């Protein structure tokens, strides 16, 4: 029996891993029901949850209106080599962000035309200019980044989608999804032909907590706090709470949550640069808001952002780190000979360049022409974060033609990017307690943490991962935005 069974296992495993990155894996109906049920119980008991949008207070009051986070029932197969490649890139990108952040002129020049037509980016640049004028130095620099990738089916290359330097989300929940998958495979692995040891452990939340604690330590004031800048309503609050609970329990560092409006009302910077909010000294400002124009409904929020930037608190991110994460800078860094301005190591440069997809500014007339002719091969991206802002397909053509006809400077608000087409495969996506089987594609995010104090690099590491899976017919990929589900990796 053992023997026959293991043949079956081999077969189903081959099926599970056929083709690179393919997740095609049929689960028999009886087993599927059990898996979904157990998974939903597991999520509820282990805090793999978000606020339920049908409950009014779910975005403000913890403990009210919880629903499991959308998740993939089984982890996504990924070839070991791609996994290692993505992990290896993390410290190199961390260092790149730091180097670029120190070149204020590069940031200002690269974004100067964008600034004219994009008021939001303009406001960020204004704060950055003020800091340059003040000669503001950030000796202690903390970056909590997430570099996102898709595996291009045609070239078999792992391409970077973007690098997030502000509000990289899901360090908390992504760890739980890996644990959920390990747990399900421990129970049902024999029937599924899967081995839980192939799901890499995910350290995102503990390593991010460690980075925040180490930064707090560098600030060297044991009564100071970490302040999490939050949106007024946040259904992804449990992801953030996971991090803060870790910070408190593993490192004894307390945190407070404040909106930008509250910071404006309660905050002040003392003559020595100390940031004080409601009488409490802030050592580290950790942004989980402030990346979108919606986060700045009035001047009050902009005042708060400027206040924090002027202080000597450690900003995660500083305004410079924030700007390095814009799509425009991603595109500028992909130009020939630009990486060489910031990095010395040729191997590192080659590794970064290998993961750059086609990226173009819209003053490249030939590329704009190609995009109008074949819009399906491009993505048109404004300088925005948080999902749901990019333009695809026929809208790329319409938008480009309109902007060209207007002869407007507005083209400078966007960049064009080569569209990546990952292999789609059948997946089980669970949302609001219901499991759907669909063709889906995945995006791999690798968390990175960087901390330095003057010349001393205290931390520069890969810190775990986020896999997100979405139906292949959907353009965008945000989980919070409702397009994707949280997933993990099954190494093959
Ligand atoms: P954001 O900062 O809003 O997350 P992204 O650049 O990550 O912006 O784009 C959002 C989503 O759009 C991605 O998660 C991905 O699903 C999709 N996307 C972005 N760029 C590409 C691309 N070049 N090819 C295919 N899909 C893309
Ligand atoms: Mg982003
Ligand atoms: Mg993104």
From TrEMBL:
Residues given in the record as Mg(2+) binding sites: 162, 164, 385
Record GO terms (molecular function): ATP binding; glutathione binding; glutathione synthase activity; magnesium ion binding
Reactions it catalyzes: gamma-L-glutamyl-L-cysteine + glycine + ATP = glutathione + ADP + phosphate + H(+)
GO cellular component: chloroplast; cytosol
Subcellular localization(s) per the UniProt record: Plastid, Chloroplast
NCBIfam families associated with the record: glut_syn_euk
Protein name per its UniProtKB record: Glutathione synthetase
Naturally occurring in which organism (per UniProt): Elaeis guineensis var. tenera (Oil palm)
Originating gene: LOC105045397
